[in-house]
Amino acid sequence: MSVDRKIKVLVCKPGLDGHDRGAKVLARALRDAGMEVIYTGIHQTPDDVVNTVIQEDPDAVMLSMLSGSHNALCPLIMDKLKEHGIDDVLVAVGGIIPDEDKAFLGEHGLKGFHGPGTELKTIVEFVKNNLKR
Amino acid sequence: MTEYDKIKQDKEEWEKSISLKKERKQSFKNLSEIEINRLYTPNDIKDFNYALDLGFPGQYPFTRGAYPNMYRGQLWTMRQFAGFGSAMQTNKRYKFLINHGNTGLSVAFSLHTIYGIEATDPRALGEIGKEGVAIDSLKDMQTLFDGIDLSKISTSMTINGPASILLALYIVTAEKQGHTPEELRGTIQNDILKEYIAQKSWIFPPEPSMRLIIDTIEYCTKHVPQWYTISISGYHIREAGSTAVQELAFTLADGFAYVEAALERGLDIDDFAPRLSFFFNSHNNFFEEVCKYRAARRIWAKHMKNKYGAKNPESMRLRFHTQTAGVSLAAQEPENNIARVTLQGLASVLGGTQSLHTNSFDEALCLPTENAVKIALRTQQIIAHESGVTDTVDPLAGSYYVEWLTNKMEEESENYFQRIEALGGVVPAIKANFFQKEIANASYKYQREIENRERTIVAVNQFDQKEPCSVPLLKIDEEIANEQINKLNKLKEERDNDKVKEKLERLKEAARGTENLMPFIVDAVREYTSIGEIINTLTEVFGTYHEDSIF
Known about the structure:
The structure holds 2 protein chains of 2 kinds.
Chain A lengths: L7 E5 L8 H12 L3 E4 L6 H11 L3 E6 L4 H14 L6 E6 L3 H9 L3 E2 L7 H11 L3
Parallel strand pairs in A: 1-2, 1-3, 3-4, 4-5
Chain B lengths: L2 H15 L32 H5 L15 H4 L3 E2 L2 E2 L4 H13 L5 E4 L2 H4 L23 H7 L9 E5 L4 H14 L8 E4 L4 H7 L6 H18 L3 E2 L1 E4 L1 H5 L4 H21 L4 H4 L3 E7 L3 H22 L5 H4 L3 E5 L12 H14 L4 E3 L12 H16 L14 H23 L3 H6 L2 H18 L27 H16 L2 H16 L5 H9 L4 H12 L9
Parallel strand pairs in B: 1-10, 2-3, 3-4, 4-5, 5-6, 7-8, 8-9, 9-10
C-alpha cells in the first residue's frame, strides 16, 4: 500500500463477553502507532462484524475473544466475509485461544493468536507485516 | 520542640548521616500511582486518633474489622466460584468442593444465562456453558442443586441483569426441597451499576434496572431476610483495568447510589442496609490491598451514619467477599500464579474479608481444572490454619505506613465522590462515560508501564524463559450446547404453556406499572417459564441499552 495512507484497523469484540480491557488497550496502542482505529464495542454478532467491514473497508480486523466462543464465531465471520467477496483484509484473533485451536482457526484464514502478556508493540508490528494490501 | 518536630529533625539527620545506597528506582509507586516514601514515622499520621480513626473491631467505624473477634471466632467462608458446562456437571463440581472443605457455593453462570438469552437464540452460539453453568429454567436449577440441602449451605450467585429471576429460581428450587424463603442464606450480585461501568453485561437501561434491584431489596427485606440483596462489586471495575483507589471509590459510590434509590422508594435505611454486601478484588500490591479494605469499612460506616442517618450499627458494618485478581494471572509459567494468589489471598485476610475465592493458577488459559481448583482451596486453608495470621485481629494496625496509606486511600476516594457528585451522580456519570474513561486511561497507563519495564511482572517482562506452556487445560464439550437446546425444547413441550403465557402477561402488565415485580417473577418461574422468556417480556416494556464504544 502507498505510504501516505494510514493503516485502517477495526477492533472488534464478537460474542457476549464484555471483558473489553484488552480490546481497548490494543485499540489505543494501534492509534498511538499512527493507525486509524475503529472500535466496534462489545456484543458483535458475525453479521455485525461483516457489515462494519463492508462499511468501513479496513485493512485489518482484530477480534478480541476471551469466552471460548472463537471456534464457533470466527469461521462464521470468515465465511461471511468470503460470501461478500472480501479476501484482502487481514483478520486476526487474540485473547484466550488455546494452542490446540490455532490450527483449526488458521485453516479458516485467521492469524495472530496473541494471548495474555503479549506486548503491544508485537501486535503493532504484526499488523504492519501481515497486511494483504 | 514537639515530639513530631523532634522526629522530623532526627529523620533528616538520619538521612544525612547514613549513606543511602543508590535506589533501584527514581520513585516507588503503588498500583494507584500513589508515591510511597522511603520510611514512615509518626509524622505521617500526626492527626491519628485511635478512637475516631480505628476504634475496636466490630464497632464504628469498623476500620479494624467487621466483627469483634474476627477469625478467632469464625474463619472466612471459603467460597470457590464455580460453574461450567451443564447443570449436572457443575453439580458434580460442587459436591467435589464441598467434600474438600468448601463452606459456601458460588455459581458462575453461562454467558447466555447472564444476558437472559435462551440457549436456542443465535446470539448464544458458541457461548453455552463455556464460562459458567448453562441455566435456562427451573428444571436446570433443580439439577444444579440436586442433593445439596439449600437450608444448610449459603450460595452466592454472580448474576446481574436477570438477578431477580435467578433469586426467584433459587426460592422455588428450595421450596421444592421443602424449605421456606426465610431459611435461605446467600447473595445475588445484582449490581447493575458496575455492569455499565466495567463488566458490560447489562440488559435494560439504568432506570428500569435500578427499579428491579430495589424490587429485590424490598422483597427480600420482607420475605428472604437472611439474603444479601446486592453484592456491590469492585472486582470487575478492577479487572477492567482500574487502580485500587478507583475500585474503592467507584464501588462505594455505587453503594451510595443504591442506598439513595432505596430511600427514594421509601424504605427505612436500617431495614435494608444490613443486607447489602461488597465484593472486592485483591491484586498484587500487598499493603495497598490491605489498606483498601480497611479504608472501605471506614468510609462506608461514616457515610451511612453521617450522610444517610443510619442508627443501627449493622447498617454501617461493611462486609465483603474477595476474589484474587484474575487480571494479574500470567499465561507464562502459569504455576507462578500460585505464589501470586497466596499473597493476594493473604492481603484479603489481613484486610478482614468475610469470604474468599482464590483463583486457580490455570485461569489465564482456561476455566480451572479440578487439580488447579484444589490447590487454590488448599492455599486458603494454609493461610487459615498454618500461617498464624488469624490469631489476632487486624495485626497490621498501628503501622505508620498502613495507617498513612489507609488515610490516603480514603482521602482520594472522597475526591472521586465529589467529582461524581459534580456530574450529577453515578447514573449521569455513567452516561457521560466518566468511569469508563478513567478506567481506560488507568489500564492503558499500566500496560505501558509494564512494556517500558517500569513495572516488573515475573516471567512476563523480566526473567522470561520463553518456555512453552504445558499445563493441562479444561475443555468444554461442544455437545453441551446441543443438549441444552434439546432440554429447553423438550421442557416447552411438557409444561403448561397456557399458564406460562398467563404469568408472562401478568408480569408485563405489572412492569408497565410500579408494583414490585418479584412476586410475578416467582409465579412465572414456578411454571417453568424460561429466563429468556421473562427477559424478553420485560424488554418489551423496558427496552435495551447501548453504550458509546470509547477507548
